[in-house]
Amino acid sequence: MRPVRAVLFDLDHTLFDTERTERRALGCVARAAGVPLGPKALEAYRVVNTHVWGEYRAGRLTSKELRVLRFHLWLEKIGHDPAPARTLAPLYLDEFSSRGDLISGAAAAVRSVARLGVRMGVVTNGIDRVQRRRLGASDLKAVFPVVVTSERAGFTKPDPRIIEQALRRLRVEPDQAVYIGDDPQVDGLAANRASVFFVWFNPSRAAAETARGVTINHEIAHLREIRDLIRGR
Which of 99, 156, 204, 225 has the lowest tally of Cβ within 10 angstroms? Predict the structure, then answer.
């Protein structure tokens, strides 16, 4: 690997505290639907949301279909009429996209990496306007001149083409870049297939079996570790 010229980040669960944002946005939806948002209802939503995002990554759902279907399935799962799903979907997205909740230390870590003079980018499997609005709310928008979303790129991780698009826009070769993400089977595979150095952000110290079949070039538990890793390359 040549010296690092570009650093790419995943967003959800890597920089963004997605669970926090999700709880708050889902609370608004639950109140509008008259649904109590207890632990079981929250867990039911997460199960359904994981499923529909898997279908989206596999190309079996469009982003527009995903937005409504997750609420249709969620309401069914918790024993409520799914008819309001179409009106709940935009309410959720508006609330969700308005928040830039970051994982502790994320802002400082990102800015410290940017001060090294490397090129900065984001590659995310997300709805374009939602992810861009969240970045703006997080005050990190200016740090990332290149943002590639699956909705706009037309490819979802682990398809390597979404990372390759970011590399072209940053004008760097694969062996000059690092990609940091929390999901080996999505972020890691995409990086592996694009021949990009993959850093697994693993704050929970998940078991290595989670990354089976994926090459983990480096593993970190804290985002502050990234700066020293880049400086050492």
Answer: 204
